[in-house]
Amino acid sequence: MLLERGGEMAVLESAMTAAGAGEGGLVIIAGPPGIGKTGLLGAAAEHAHVTGMRVLAGRGRQLEREIALGVAVELLAPPIAAAGPDERAGLLAGPAIAAASLVLDQAPHPAPDSLLLGLCWLAANLAGSAPLLVAVDDAQWADAVSLRFLAMLADRAPTLPLMLVVSVRDGAEAPTLLLTHPRATLLRPAPLTRTAVGHLVAKTFPAPDNALVDAVDYATGGNPFLVGELLRSLQAEGETPRPSTIADLVPGAVLRSVLARLAQLPGDTVTLATSIAVLGDGTPLSRVAAHAGLDLVAAERAADRLATACLVRPGNPLTFTHPLIGAAVHADLPAFARSRAHRRAADLLSADGAGTDQVAGHLLVVEPEGDPRVAEVLRDAADTALRRGDPASAARLLTRALAEPPPVDTRGGLFVALARAQLLAGNPAALASLTKGLDLLDPADRSLRAHALTLLAQVHKGLDDPDGAVGAWEAALELFEPGGPEWQDVLAGYLTTTMFHPATRERAERHLSLDPQPASRGLAAHVTLRLALAGEPPARVLASAEYALTDDPVLEPGGGSGALMALVVHALIIVGELAAAERAADAALTAAGRRGDILACGYASYHRALARLRCGRLTAALADLEAAQLPYTVGWKSAGGWNGWLAAQIYVEHGDLAVAHQILRQADDRPPDSMEAALAAHVRAQLALARGDSATALDLAITAGRRLREFYGIDHPGLLPWRTTAALAARHAGDHDQAQFLAAAALDRARAVRIPQAIGTAQRVVGLVARPTDITALTESTATLGRSPAALEHARALADLGTALRRSGDTACRRPLRQALAIAEQAQARPLAERVRTELHALGIRPRRTVVTGVDALTPAESRVALLASRGLSNRQIAQALFITAKTVETHLARAYRKLAITSRGQLPKVFT
């Protein structure tokens, strides 16, 4: 019975109604132990059942806090297990496939970030068949990764028919990730009023006097659980209590009275209660009986007695009527008896085939005994925790394993494993663990030593000790024969760590030979990029890229995140092989989506956006950049500067200068010697030039080029065409000599690297800065760029040629100007289109303002959705592919149909041919 909880229930029922309409949310019920949080949660679940919602229920448990994603599995595994083959396939479709290994208890698990997003999509798919209530009790004891999952799910709830209700106990262990969530509605049930306490007292002691009610109210503070337990204890005494004896009671004494009531029961009953407290709520009767050393009949009798005494809920499995009772029984055990009881529990669970993470929860509180099996189980549980994305739990498990202690010959490996967990958790204690581990490792085990040194390098990097990082990498290299496969894999990692850190980059790259076919595909990615930056012919770079991508378009030893693939695609973009770059990015996106790797999706989307920008497909590039932001939804931050400069570049082409300026702030926190800072400086130069601030533009463009040369030894127009920007800035500033010098140098450099786009752009600028304008150079530029995929650069060359011809009185100017306008308007490059339109107006030509139609009329989001629909994907499949909701897909398609003047998805294939 819920007393005085009408306000809370009204909030919960209203939230569930909104969830049924597709606008879900998060409600947190917070308060001290016994205030009635569990009762409200149960009432919410009952209301959900009545109104047709599907209910997923889970609970945090103290002994299972080290089971990474334990609460998430408790929520999501049952409906998957109960589903038939076809329904299960539908629920695990799209990005939800990343969760299949977890909810079906299969290996291997994907990367933790992909796993969490997969769980979110699984919940969204479950909500697709019926509105969903996710109810979690005692969230303060939930494992850290499950809390992250719940927070991510809350982020998505407003666009889903999904509601989360979470109960949280006040105290130091309260999960701030949920309590501070911006979408949370917080309920704090108040203590019962004296009137409600009097009602409960009257149910136990009819017609109580005011003094008795006052005494119970004072002793319990209106806490519903304490009121109930106090009344049961008083009732057990067999006579009406005296108020004077109650008035001095406090909550701790009430709990002690519960233990006293338990002690009055038969010995088997006490033993069974102790076993429930050790094994935890929700344990089957047969297992509790085995732990207590009772036969099943005796255990059943004891369980019935506990239920009659209102200490345990009736039925199987066995659960205390309130967690406080179990906690009190557990705390009442003497320390060594508690340790021995948990050891019996671990052995029992292990014999029953329970997971190592469940067994490990008990072993964590067992006194060390030097048992090798204990250390082995704890290490297995730590491995599981790492796979599921909970390195802090893994570190605690490994620390306990080392305290056992394990056999001497395994301690070094355990210290290394501990250091890896500490490193992932951001704990600098990893340095001390690695130092101990390296001292204990067998010198002959080169692979494990190399792994330890790799971790050591990362720790030093994290501690801002580049010399220490370089020393560790080079020590790892020395373990293997130079040039061998293992050596190459280590070198690939070394280069990936140092490539964007000028102080260490040169020292690392002295080991890199431009062998076109190294044994390591990871090293082949680095070779491909170095060939591109060294100005090697595009054909050689393309061959190296094809070799690097032979096995898997999402490269990386050990199935990593696709960073090495990104190097290959960027190399292709630098040398102008834009079609090949886009094909590689497409393949990477397909592979990353198939295994739910969102970080690889982010890398591939970014680089496809860059390729599409170079082709002049601005809308498609922005759509890809939207997808490249996906890793930010699970906490990644490292790519902000890269995404920022590229988005700003696209908006400059669009003419949205204010937006470009705002987005560039993503790169503000990057150090001056970072590559992103140089790229951002170049975009700022273009912004300044567009505003007419030629002096600032000149200074920024030169600064961008100087940074790349000084910090990275790179001077390549395919990466950063700073000279052409600087030349145009000098021209506008009136410094024609410097402009001509910079333009000539740009053309020389472009010819040296043999890239048509760079040559054509430089020819255009040479023609512009000449005095008078060099029409021959402009004509050559249009011819060169016309043979390249760089549509916008071609349009600029046509516009400049047409302008020069018009000013010289040549009527042949009309054709290039009309061509330039068509390209610019199709790309929605508004500043260029307006400039060309002005030139045509000067000729007396009033071209109609072209209404952009087709795919280019769509926003980036509409374009992505419509393209997938044209390929036959359903709304649900599109939502899964793009990590948006089906409702959002419907909205984008409706708008796309209007803009494309079509009425159904069946007409989309013709639009995209």
Automatic annotation (TrEMBL):
SMART domains from the UniProt entry: HTH_LUXR (SM00421)
One Pfam match:
AAA_16
Q: Which organism is it from?
A: Amycolatopsis pigmentata
**InterPro entries, alphabetically?**
AAA_16 (IPR041664), P-loop_NTPase (IPR027417), Sig_transdc_resp-reg_C-effctor (IPR016032), TPR-like_helical_dom_sf (IPR011990), Tscrpt_reg_LuxR_C (IPR000792), WH-like_DNA-bd_sf (IPR036388)
Name recorded for this polypeptide: ATP-binding protein
**Molecular function GO terms recorded:** ATP binding
Task: Quote the PROSITE patterns the UniProt record gives.
Answer: HTH_LUXR_1 (PS00622), HTH_LUXR_2 (PS50043)
Q: Which UniProt keywords apply?
A: ATP-binding, Nucleotide-binding
Record-annotated HTH luxR-type domain positions: 851-913
